[in-house]
Every structure is written in structure tokens, then in C-alpha cells.
Design goal:
Number of domains: 2
Radius of gyration: 19 Å
GO biological process, one term: 'de novo' UMP biosynthetic process
CATH topology of the largest domain: Rossmann fold
Organism: Thermococcus sibiricus
Strand order of the largest sheet: 7-6-5-8-9
Catalytic activity: carbamoyl phosphate + L-aspartate = N-carbamoyl-L-aspartate + phosphate + H(+)
Distance between the termini: 8 Å
Bound molecules: N-carbamoyl-L-aspartate
Subunit structure: Heterooligomer of catalytic and regulatory chains.
Function: Catalyzes the condensation of carbamoyl phosphate and aspartate to form carbamoyl aspartate and inorganic phosphate, the committed step in the de novo pyrimidine nucleotide biosynthesis pathway.
Oligomer: single chain
CATH class of the largest domain: Alpha Beta
CATH superfamily of the largest domain: Aspartate/ornithine carbamoyltransferase
Number of strands: 9
Length: about 300
């Protein structure tokens, strides 16, 4: 299987998703073998980050290095000619001369799609505004499979800023390919966009609520997210909602024994630090999944493995 770009989870069918997860597993198993360093040997990844990032950028870079490739790029557009007024199109036309694959994160929705239309080399979306974050979703699915051995049959709650959070937009869509029950828990005003619910509600059972406590005893996965402060048009609105939910030991009292808490990170105050040492916390193992899954995506779009 081969695909050129990774822009939106909507471009992926279940078969493609399963192929990425299988490839990630294979590469994770090959990590200590010499041959893995041959896969992307001589290839260059360009990481263009117009928004802050820790995990996404560094795990892509780690993935490329582990495949034997090399990395160029920027973590801050203010140090590039964008500052002088260069357009995204011209930036992409330039960078594609230096690299074999581009990973881009941009505050504007649709920016990655535009980059893919301009570029002749593969483009991977590392987050475009509040829209999509498909590679995060793939690593989230990989993590769920690793933790439970399956995705089917699970009850999965997505908690937090479901309006502006791009990770949950992509994840909700991908989960609708599986036999799961979904709970969307959001503070008032930050609910999952209607168009996403409409897209998936005939495929998957959804319960919408703003009552975290009542949902906790039912679920197998609690996927928490940060309120996306930077996307609020009005800071006063953010101040009203901030701190409106928090996962702590007390609220976890009624949780299922096998509950796994996930989070794309960064966390601000959604998960109290005391939860880290409980068996519920899976979020730092989830961080690791970024490496094999991004190794798989890079290998596939570069066409360097079968
Ligand atoms: C997320 C993002 O950038 O959308 N972070 C990530 O990639 N792991 C989540 C967030 O910023 O809240």
C-alpha cells in the first residue's frame, strides 16, 4: 500500500489505518536491527512548525533519525523569511528543493492541504489550526491497541475542548470505523462540532454530556484534552471555562479497574499529577507511540518499505 500525503483522517479508510498500525508494529520490532537504518538513508525530512510543538516535532525527528535519514527545518517561523512576508506557497516551493518529505504544523485550517497541492514531494499534516491532527490519531489508536490488545468493544470518552481540539476531531472520525461506544464530555460551549457528529453518528453510538463524574465508571478509555486557549477569539471566554474539569484521585474512585487515561499532551491542569503514578495513566506510554507510528508514516510516504 502506498499513499503520497497525510493531510486529514478523512482521506483514510479503515484499511489504510490498519496498514499504518501494522507497519508501526513491524518497525517497532525492528528498532534494534541494523537494517532499519537503511530505510531512509540519504533521505531528508523538513519539519516546518509555524506553531509550538514538543512531541510532534521531536518524535518525527526521532523517527527519521531512527530510519537512518536526516532532518532540516524550523520550530519557529519568526526566524525564517515568513517574517519578511514570504507566502506559504513560496516557502513550500523552496523547501521541497531541499527535502524528500515535509511535515508541517500551521495555525490556519487547510494550510497542510495547500502545501500538499503545491509540493511535489509528500506532505504530512502535523496539525492545521483547530481542524485535524491525523498523525496524533494514528498514534492514539496504536496506543489503545497496545494497552488493550484491541479497539473493538471499548467504551471511549473524549473529554475537554472538543470544539477547538484538533486531536479529538481526527480521533472521533477514526474511531467511528470501529465497533466502539463514544462519550463526548465537554464544558458548555466547547462541544464537538455538529458536522463531525453528523458525519459519524450513523456508524457509532454517541453519548454527549458535560458530567464527567457520571461517565467515569462506564468507560475503558478516558481521553483528556487541554482547553485550546490560543484558539479563543475572546480571552474572557477562556477565563470563564478554564479549570472546569479535572481528573484527580477523588473523581477516579468509581473508575473501572482497567481504565486507561490518555492525553495528547501538553496538559495544563486537566490531569492532576497524583494520577501519574496510578495504573490508569497511559499518557507517557502514548508519547512513545509517536515514534513507531511516525516511522511508519515516513517510510510509507517515502516508499522505502514494502
Ligand atoms: C496537541 C496539538 O498540538 O493539537 N498536541 C500534540 O500534538 N500532542 C494537543 C494540544 O496542543 O492541546
Amino acid at each position: 500500500m502506498k499513499f503520497q500525503d497525510v493531510i486529514s483522517i478523512n482521506d483514510f479508510g479503515k484499511e489504510e489505518i490498519e496498514y499504518v498500525l501494522k507497519t508501526a508494529k513491524r518497525l517497532e520490532n525492528e528498532l534494534n536491527e541494523q537494517k532499519i537504518l537503511q530505510y531512509a538513508k540519504g533521505k531528508v525530512l523538513a519539519t516546518l512548525f509555524f506553531e509550538p510543538s514538543t512531541r510532534t516535532r521531536l518524535s518525527f525527528e526521532s523517527a527519521m533519525h531512527r530510519l537512518g535519514g536526516s532532518v532540516i527545518g524550523f520550530a519557529e517561523a519568526s526566524s525564517t523569511s515568513v517574517k519578511k512576508g514570504e507566502s506559504l506557497m513560496d516557502t513550500i516551493r523552496t523547501v521541497e528543493k531541499y527535502a524528500d518529505v515535509i511535515v508541517i504544523r500551521h495555525p490556519r485550517e487547510g494550510a497542510a492541504r495547500l502545501a500538499a497541492e503545491v509540493a511535489e514531494i509528500p506532505v504530512i499534516n502535523a496539525g492545521d489550526g483547530a481542524n485535524q491532527h491525523p498523525t496524533q490519531t494514528l498514534l492514539d489508536l496504536y496506543t489503545i491497541k497496545k494497552e488493550f490488545g484491541r479497539i473493538n468493544g471499548l467504551k471511549i470518552a473524549l473529554l475537554g475542548d472538543l470544539k477547538y481540539g484538533r486531536t479529538v476531531h481526527s480521533l472521533a472520525k477514526a474511531l467511528s470505523y470501529y465497533n466502539v461506544k463514544l462519550y463526548f464530555i465537554a464544558p458548555q460551549g466547547l462541544e464537538m462540532p455538529r458536522h463531525i457528529i453528523e458525519e459519524i453518528s450513523d456508524k457509532v453510538e454517541i453519548t454527549e454530556t458535560n458530567d464527567l463524574e457520571s461517565v467515569i465508571p462506564e468507560v475503558d478509555v478516558l481521553y483528556a484534552t487541554r482547553i485550546q486557549k490560543e484558539r479563543f477569539p475572546d480571552p474572557a471566554e477562556y477565563n470563564k471555562i478554564k479549570g472546569s474539569y479535572r481528573i484527580d484521585l477523588k473523581i477516579l474512585n468509581g473508575a473501572k479497574e482497567g481504565l486507561k487515561i490518555m492525553h495528547p499532551l501538553p496538559r495544563v491542569d486537566e490531569i492532576s499529577y497524583e494520577v501519574d503514578k496510578t495504573p490508569y495513566s497511559a499518557y507517557f506510554r502514548q508519547v512513545w507511540s509517536g515514534v513507531p507510528v511516525r516511522m511508519a508514516l515516513l517510510s510509507i510516504v517515502l516508499g522505502v518499505i514494502e
